[in-house]
Fold this sequence. Notes:
The protein is α/β, with parallel strands linked by helices and 499 residues long. It has helices at 9-18, 108-115, 120-123, 147-156, 164-185, 194-208, 220-231, 251-272, 277-293, 307-318, 324-335, 340-349, 361-372, 379-392, 397-406, 444-453, 476-488; strands at residues 45-46, 60-68, 78-86, 95-100, 126-131, 213-218, 236-242, 296-297, 304-305, 430-437, 458-466, 496-498. The chain has 17 helices and twelve strands.
Amino acid sequence: MVRFVRWAALGAAAALLVSGCDSPGDGRDDRSDRSVNGSEKLDWGRCEATADSPAPGDEWQCATLQVPLDWAKPKGETIGIALIRAKATGDDRIGSLLFNFGGPGGSGVSMMPSYASTVSSLRERYDLVSFDPRGVAASEGVRCRDDEEIQAAEAEVDATPDTPAEERAFLADAADFGKGCQESAGELMAHVSTTDTARDMDLIRQALGDAKMHYFGISYGTELGGVYAHLFPQKVGRMVLDAVVDPSADAVGHARNQTLGFQRALDDYLESTGQDPAEGSRELAELLDRIDARPLPTSTPGRKLTQTLALTGIVLPLYSKDGWPSLTSALEAAEEGDGSELLALADGYNEREASGRYGTTTHSQRVISCLDDRQRPTPAQTKALLPEFEKISPVFGSFLGWDTAGWCHDWPVPGQHDTPEVSAPGAAPILTVGNTGDPATPVEGARRMADELGKDVGVVLTWNGEGHGAYGSGSDCVDSTVDAYLLDGTVPRDGKVCD
């Protein structure tokens, strides 16, 4: 099962296409800096290779910061948060710029070195820093299933069940996944919320020696940044939130937003190929129905292209306009009865290597989001939503509609809230950046985040472009505006539009 929210998928996409308990009170924490569990001194050293990535160059350093397992017991048991940094290259250093690349569940330690070229202008005055949030990769990363179990579920479980038997299998698989997460995470399962990680971020800020939090959040990282700003408004320095998650949307609202966003991106893609979007979507939905009835053969022995894998393969190239040619080729092959190219695209999204090894971003993503989200739609409630979702998108509607029931079905721990609290009165101006062609986080989220951050805090920049995320995506206007804000403190006019 895949929820289409994570920015981290772009790392796999690029390679493929070229080849929780809150503290008492109101939740806001304006207390002065304090030491937790004695020392926050970071012992920086050479970064080692991981199972997911080779060791970066000598310019990169890694360290581990101890943080409370349970923030309600700040002097109790600790866990380690993995960090990576590259020092500023210029003399006029501002401080550290902390990155979160999204997910939830994306590894910042793995992603930061590959993203450094995109933000090379920022490194002149900032140390580039990222981290693996709790429950992710090197920070007590959760693995809910082994590779064989993941592949079996991909082959056998229909994410858009059409019969009572398929529905039972879908829900049983969801419950089984949650049990696997509980076995892997143990006590940590109840302490991987976005609020927990936002509190960890403030300890990171202190350990880095920064008086203010300078931050760049992408996709889910925007929600994390908003929650940080709510908890620590007086500690906000220069903060950019790009590809903004709508903080006013609950779990169902978020699925509805994504249904709209991916259909918009698909429409733009279809128009670029000379097709009528409505007709092209109808034909694509018919192709998926045929694959549902009869999965396509592929060049990989023992594997067929199911409807769920086909849909995942369609989703991946929509994250970036550079992926559109690969989508055209894969769809043409599928129409001819060969599912190999769509399967390769799906594998890229699912972090599946040729060896059959899978990454664990989706595992971490699920334990974090299901701890955050209180809403648990029943199958009956989901079925009532399907006509609305399918009207928005005949291609993605059924999948994202059913996802509202399956994602956190029978989850071992309760969710914490319906929507995140991001109001940050008194914080410095925060720049939210939206992209009109963003499939995973529709452009409306940037304005809604700015509004919820509060008057004189949220400032919106909009780009009329394609893909998930705006900075570094080809707009000189976006890049120069963000750079001027981060490097010089120049806050743009609220509502500025880059074409």
